[in-house]
Amino acid sequence: xxxxxxxxxxxxxxxxxxxxxxxxxxYYYGWSNDDVSPEDEHxxxxxxxxxxxxxxxxxxxxxxxxxxxTDGIKRFFSEDEVTKMS
Length: 86
What we know:
Structural class: mainly beta
Helix content: under 10%
Largest sheet: 5 strands, antiparallel
Distance between the termini: 36 Å
Number of helices: 0
Number of strands: 5
Radius of gyration: 14 Å
């Protein structure tokens, strides 16, 4: 495999806010801060950055963040679900 041409926006050690975005099979429903319920919102520290290929094409990878959340659980979030806390 050649070197990936995508670079993560955040790095290991960053403190982040994460919100799971739920996808419908046919449509993408984005989210806003008004739509967030407390059980969908998580805070934590990025412990690893990984890459996923969902459709089998080697040139179509997505960045995944492994976040150790403040409740002690490690969760996976895509890049559009993560926001760095300042």
